[in-house]
Write a structure and sequence with these properties.
Blueprint: H1 11-16, H2 24-54, H3 57-65, H4 67-95, H5 99-130
Helix pairs in contact: 2-4, 3-5, 4-5
Length: 134
């Protein structure tokens, strides 16, 4: 079987019959799907931002109180922080050596992204509910 990919596997891997840790494909797909989902959300935000910058807080809260705008803003925050967590995880796993520092940075990444998403959603809901339309 010369020329097959099994020649590139380690002897221990060939003995066990195991390949990768079996989680890389899921991570890869999640990165791509969240990245694709961010394209229309970012375009929506790019067109909405200048319009909101022209008005005051009352007009922005009225705009955000519309269900479609509130849902899209919430999706932008959640998908954005999810995508950020995946990307920072890849960087930490590839470039940080040492179990303790790698684990600490991965946990910090998770906590910061969850906190950021929660604060973003809270802010969106608070502004939307202040206008009384939802």
């Amino acid at each position: 079987m010369a020329g097959t990919s099994s020649n590139f596997r380690t002897p221990l891997s060939r003995a066990r019959g195991l390949g990768a840790a079996k989680h890389g494909a899921g991570h890869f797909i999640a990165e791509r799907v969240s990245g694709i989902a961010l394209i229309p959300l970012a375009l929506w935000a790019a067109f909405s931002g200048p319009m909101l910058a022209k008005g005051d807080f009352a007009s922005a809260s009225t705009w955000l109180a519309q269900p479609l705008n509130a849902v899209l803003a919430g999706l932008l925050v959640v998908v954005g922080f999810f995508h950020l967590r995946l990307q920072i995880q890849v960087v930490v796993e590839d470039y940080v050596y040492g179990f303790v520092s790698k684990t600490g940075l991965l946990l910090l990444n998770l906590f910061v992204c969850v906190l950021g998403a929660a604060l973003g959603l809270f802010a969106i809901l608070k502004v939307a509910l202040l206008s009384g339309a939802l």
